[in-house]
Automatic annotation (TrEMBL):
It comes from Ruminococcus albus. Pfam families: His_Phos_1 (PF00300). It comes from the Bacteria. Transmembrane segments: none annotated. This is Alpha-ribazole phosphatase. InterPro entries: His_Pase_superF_clade-1, His_PPase_superfam, PGM_Phosphatase. PANTHER family: BROAD-SPECIFICITY PHOSPHATASE YOR283W-RELATED. GO terms for molecular function: phosphatase activity.
């Protein structure tokens, strides 16, 4: 059975990440420390070159892809951009916590967007469109490996919605410059629009396997 391997990777650190600010559509570059961290990881970790790299159009993702995959063909997908936080963009939670808008927002829910921003449902629908485009493109071109350089929130929602076994979004939280690898088969995707999560990416420990990732939740 033919399979398609896709590595989902979170972009490197920006100054706003370092400051704890909300940055969704705010188009900030990597910080100098963020870029250096990626170069350091390249020295220690194995990032196999994929046949194609799909990236969010925001600077932090384009720069991350340029560092990790400098010689790979890249394609920008607007659907891979981070959530739009509206009025909360570029602000810290501590600046917002006493406002009624923020108190309402942190109650959660799929249809509870920040003022002037995007709802979780809208973001999930966007994730669905993105993964459909990527898988269809890989199948059409006959690709067997790809990387997706995007945002932490996008990775958590994509994998929790379409990955199996099913896990919570926060179980797919990942460090900057790291993420998860999945395996897509045509039969599984066409039957249930789902893919298999293989484990963390890049592999830090050669002894780490598929099962060890899922055993983490059992020990909680």
């Amino acid at each position: 059975m033919k399979g398609y391997r896709i590595a989902f990777i979170r972009h490197g650190i920006t100054e706003a990440n370092e400051d704890g600010r909300y940055i969704g559509t705010t188009d900030l570059p990597l910080s100098s420390a963020g870029a250096q961290e990626l170069f350091d990881k390249l020295e220690k970790l194995d990032y196999p070159n994929p046949q194609k790299v799909y990236i969010s159009p925001l600077k932090r993702c384009k720069q991350t892809a340029g560092i990790i995959y400098p010689n790979c063909y890249t394609v920008e997908l607007p659907e891979l951009r981070e959530m739009d936080f509206g009025k909360f963009e570029n602000k810290k939670a501590e600046e917002l916590m006493d406002t009624p808008e923020y108190k309402q927002y942190i109650k959660g829910g799929l249809d509870n967007p920040p003022p002037g921003g995007e709802s979780a449902r809208e973001m999930v629908n966007r994730c669905y469109e993105a993964i459909k485009i990527i898988i269809s493109d890989m199948m059409y071109e006959g690709l067997t490996s790809a990387a997706v350089v995007t945002h932490g929130g996008i990775i958590m929602n994509m994998l929790s919605c379409f990955g199996v076994p099913k896990r919570r979004p926060m179980d797919y939280a990942c460090d900057f410059g790291e993420g998860f690898e999945v395996l897509v088969t045509a039969s599984m995707w066409q039957r249930s629009e789902a893919f298999e999560v293989l484990g963390r990416y890049p592999d830090r420990d050669p002894d780490e396997n598929y099962g060890s990732f899922y055993d983490e939740e059992e020990g909680e």
